[in-house]
Amino acid sequence: xxxxxxxxxxxxxxxxxxxxxxxxxxxxxxxxxxxxxxxxxxxxxxxxxxxxxxxxxxxxxxxxxxxxxxxxxxxxxxxxxxxxxxxxxxxxxxxxxxxxxxxxxxxxxxxxxxxxxxxxxxxxxxxxxxxxxxxxxxxxxxxxxxxxxxxx
Amino acid sequence: xxxxxxxxxxxxxxxxxxxxxxxxxxxxxxxxxxxxxxxxxxxxxxxxxxxxxxxxxxxxxxxxxxxxxxxxxxxxxxxxxxxxxxxxxxxxxxxxxxxxxxxxxxxxxxxxxxxxxxxxxxxxxxxxxxxxxxxxxxxxxxxxxxxxxxxxxxxxxxxxxxxxxxxxxxxxxxxxxxxxxxxxxxxxxxxxxxxxxxxxxxxxxxxxxxxxxxxxxxxxxxxxxxxxxxxxxxxxxxxxxxxxxxxxxxxxxxxxxxxxxxxxxxxxxxxxxxxxxxxxxxxxxxxxxxxxxxxxxxxxxxxxxxxxxxxxxxxxxxxxxxxxxxxxxxxxxxxxxxxxxxxxxxxxxxxxxxxxxxxxxxxxxxxxxxxxxxxxxxxxxxxxxxxxxxxxxxxxxxxxxxx
Lengths: 152, 403
Description:
The complex is a heterodimer of chains A (152) and B (403).
Chain A: E1 7-8, E2 15-18, E3 23-31, E4 37-38, E5 41-42, E6 46-51, E7 55-62, E8 72-75, E9 108-113, E10 118-123, E11 135-141, E12 148-151
Parallel strand pairs in A: 3-7, 6-11
Antiparallel strand pairs in A: 1-5, 2-3, 3-4, 6-12, 7-9, 8-10, 10-11
Chain B: E1 15-20, E2 22-27, H1 39-48, E3 60-63, E4 68-70, E5 88-89, E6 104-109, E7 115-118, H2 119-123, E8 127-135, E9 158-167, H3 168-174, E10 183-188, E11 199-203, H4 204-207, E12 213-218, E13 221-222, E14 232-234, E15 247-253, H5 260-263, E16 267-268, H6 282-285, E17 287-288, E18 295-300, E19 310-319, E20 325-332, E21 338-339, E22 341-344, E23 352-360, E24 363-373, E25 396-402
Parallel strand pairs in B: 2-25, 6-15
Antiparallel strand pairs in B: 1-2, 3-4, 4-5, 6-7, 8-9, 9-12, 10-11, 10-15, 12-13, 12-14, 16-17, 18-19, 19-23, 20-21, 20-24, 22-23, 24-25
C-alpha cells in the first residue's frame, strides 16, 4: 500500500515577470500520468513565490482528455477539502473551477492581485482532486524582488 | 447463465461523443493498457504501460492514478461481464493489497456488541449469491451538456456480475445495533496517506436489506484485488461509491458519515439548477446519491462499424436501481417508439439484454433507445444535470451511415 503524497517529477511551470507593472504570468499544465498534478508536481512539491502586491495572471491547460481539472489559489487549509473551495483573493479562481476543463477545452485563465503575505495553496477545484494530492504551494512574500519557482 | 465462465472477448475500443441535438455516438477506437501491483510498482509499471495482471489490455484508461478503467462497449455484450473486463473506479492513488489470513473487519459505533471479524468468522455465516450490476455514479458523465466535473466516462463504468458473500444484516444483527443506529458506514483500506479514509454510509434500512451483501467472490472467482479483495460491500442498485472495497470497518451511527466522500462528493442537487449557478454548497444544499434511475444503452453496434443498408440488428442492456425493467423501446430516425425484444431477462438487480431489428435505406440514420422500469419511470431525453455529473440516464442515441 502506498499513499497520496508529494509527487515531483516534471518540468516546473514557467513564470514570467514584468517588474515595471509588477505582473507575473504563471503557465500551469494539469496532468495525471503519475497522480493528478500540476506540471508533474503535487502534494506541495511545487512552490511558487511572488512578491506581495503582484498581479498574477494564470493560464492552465489540461493534458488529460478524460478527466477535468482546474486551478485556483485558496487558503492553505483548503488543500484538504473535498469541495467548496473559495479563492484566497478576488479573482484567484476561474468562474467554473468546480467543473474544470479537459484537453479538448480552451485553457482556463484568471488573474488576481496577491494582496496579503502568507502561505496559500494552489489547488484543483474539481471536487475530490485536491484531497488526493492535486495541490501545491503558493507563497506571497514581503521583500521579494521577483517571483520564483522551486521544487522539492 | 449465472455463474458460467465467460469466454474472452475481442479487444475493445471507445468512442467520442458529439452533439447533434442529442448526444450521438460515432466510433473512434482507442487502445490502452493499464497495470497493477504495489503502488510503487504500479507507478513504474504504468509509466511503461505494460498489462496489469487481472485487467484486460483493451480497457480504456480514464486515469492511471487513481486507476480508473472503463470497459469498452464491445465487452458489455455478454450478460455476465468478465472480471478482467469489469470497470475499475478507485478513489485514491494506490490500492490495498490484503491477505485473507491477516484481514480483519471491525463493527463499532451504535452497537451493543462491537465485533472484530476475520476471514474464518465471515465464512461461517450463511453464503448468499446474487447477480447484480454495479455502476459508477459517474457512468455516462461525458454525455452531460454542459460538461460536468470529473472523469468523462462514457457508458462503460458498469458491469453485471455474479457475486457471492454474506448478508450484511447477519453481521450487523450480531453486533446488536442500538435504536440510534440510523446509518451504516463502510470504511475501506484504500491507501489514503494524509487524506481522510475512504468511507461511505448508507441508511440502516438499505443495510438490513437481505440483498445488501459483503462479497468475497466475483463470477466464481476470489474478488480481484482491484475490486476489493478480500471483502467489499455490495449495495445493489445503488451508486458504485457505496460499494466500498477492502472493507476494514463498519461504523453504525445516528447520522450519515461526516467525511468528504459523503459530504463533498457523490451529492446531487435535489431540484434542477442553472449550470451557471455557482452559489450552491455541496454539503449543505445537495443530497447524497443513492439508487440509480432507469437506464439503457446500445452495446451493438458501437457506431464505428460500417452497416449495410437493409435489415440491421441492434442490441443493448437495460437496468434500473432496485426495480425490474418493464419495456425497452427504440425509435429510428425520429419515428414512433417500438418495443425491443428482451433476450435475457434480468431482475431488480441484474441487467436485461435486448435486441431490435429494423430495415434502413442507404444514407445517414439515427436511432435512440429508452427503457421503462416496472414502476412506470421512463428514461428522459437528457440526464438530470448536476455539477458533479452523476446518474446520467438520457436516451442513448446512435448515428451511422448505411451503405
